[in-house]
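Two quick folds needed for the group meeting slides. Do the first one here.
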Amino acid sequence: MPANPTAAELLATVAASPEAVAAHDRAAWVGLFAEDGTVEDPVGSRPHRGRAAIERFYDTFIAPNGIVFDVANDVVSGMTVFRDLTIATTMSTGVTLHVPMHLRYDLAETGDALKIRALRAHWELPGMITQLLGSGVQGLLAGAKLGPQLLRNQGVGGAMGFLRGLRGVGAKGRHAAGGLLDALGRGDAAGARAVLVPVPRLEWVGDGAFSLEDFSTRVKGLRWSKPIAAGRTVTATVETRQGRGIAEVDFTERGHRIESVRIFVSPS
């Protein structure tokens, strides 16, 4: 693999993930990750680090299910690919769940190959559980089977780590992030400042960090949709003057203020 891989090479590595999932090829899917790679799925849950942990993740959440990726857009920025998609998961009882998602893949060159260094899946666990329990008898049966699968493959600690994904900034975070993105879209630095920490990190990924005033100018005209609150982060699909992308909005540990905003848009 030459230095500075192309966008096409990065996308090919990422595209191999749903291909391996569709084929139920455990070795191929796990082999996409670096030796110390991590999977945080959903964001806010305890990450799975290293090959053995990622194998257990596969056995718990991928192997028993049929999973289809419906990708709306891919954003390539540096060594990151951010996918805007919906995943349809058909569980063993036949119930199918449709989960809106933003998937962030951070890639690294390892030897002569590209590997996934970190996979962070932004989706809302409370909403998925509500959808599952509202799916009738098949949904209830699927939920009853998931608990023992979690305990068998992950242990008590792993099951509790997964359930950490229930906590996060939730609806209040989505509202605050939406207000901030609206203010930035208007070029309203004063309005944006109201929900930010005193010294936020504001980044157009690939071009570095900006002051609030310069960032407001850079993103003026931004429009957003599809907000997803996972852990302390809200992601949103964005339309900018430079193209379509994804915003990643991080809150402080207590979730009262926004500490960073990153905009990912593929370079033109």
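Then this one, please, same format:
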Amino acid sequence: MKTNKWLILIFLLLPLIFTACSTKTVEEDAKSIPVEVMKVETTTIAKDHYTMGKLSASEEVNVSSQARGTVKNVYFNEGNRVSKGVTLYTLDNGDLINDVNLSKGKLDKAVEDAKLKLHDAQTNFKNNEILYQAEAISRSNYDQALLAYNQAKLNYELAEKERDLNYKSLDAAVNDTIIKSPIDGIVSQRNIQPGEMNTTVDFVIVNLSPIVVKTNVSEDLINRISLGDEVKVIIQSGSKDEYSGKVSSINPVGVNNGNIYPVEIQIANDDFILKPGMFAEVYFKLEKAENQIQIPNKTILTRGNEQYVYIIKDNIPLKVPVQKGITNNGFVQIPEGLREGDLLVVKGQEYINENSQVTIINNVSLS
């Protein structure tokens, strides 16, 4: 009977015991501060210098003819792609071609006449040579035949040289009426129409692959960049696409009182999406370090002259003093204090100290 009384008493006390334990757990959870953490990793970091630039053609050529005349045919319009050596337009050259053919005919006849005279002189010399060896003619007659042969040979050679030289000149005159593109590119200007007289600049051809970013850097930066350096370029064309370029030109002569230096950066543009006149954001990499710890700048707390972060070890917050290194795009290098693999508090660090109870609610990555 006594045993039953104890059992009844224990049964009545159990709800009170469970309620007390539950209340204690809730109180402990209420004291725990939620935090987000990130595993510290090493990476390659760089410090950028930002400036603005503008896109330009890498090559621009004005096309015109040495000859003046009436435009006969035009084969391309603005915006058309052209290849080096393709005919852009022609001048009316019918009369010129007739004159050229007539002149070439006269030159050919002069060479043919000289050739016939050389043949006759050579035949005469050989006959006189036989007679001289047979002592049938004098030395004087022999010498006269040799002199005539040598003169005929010289006249023939001169006639050939004159023909070849004049052929080049005549062909050049015709070629001046058939105007071809000197480069691969795109027609940016067409200033002529069939039936008009040609101008001083009939076509403008631009090369847009690669395309060039023209920008300027200050005197404190000019000696920190080199030809071939890789540069990040963001084109402000609506979507702000990112491109990789290379420094292709550094002007050593400053402008604007000598403290601004023009720099050019080449970007591949095989699809011709990038156009001259577009604005660009240019980022020069000035400092670069590998295997470095980099954390979000916002995770660093400051009290007086002290800068520190919190890491979580065995579910306990630890305060770690840090010094800032290279800062770039919201991240900062930490040369000392943190190690790869540490769990860095990235959210909620303002509300904790080394005596706080914490609950990790999310694990984020640097990327």
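Slide caption for protein two: The chain has four domains: 30-45+291-364, 50-58+206-288, 65-91+177-201, 94-176.
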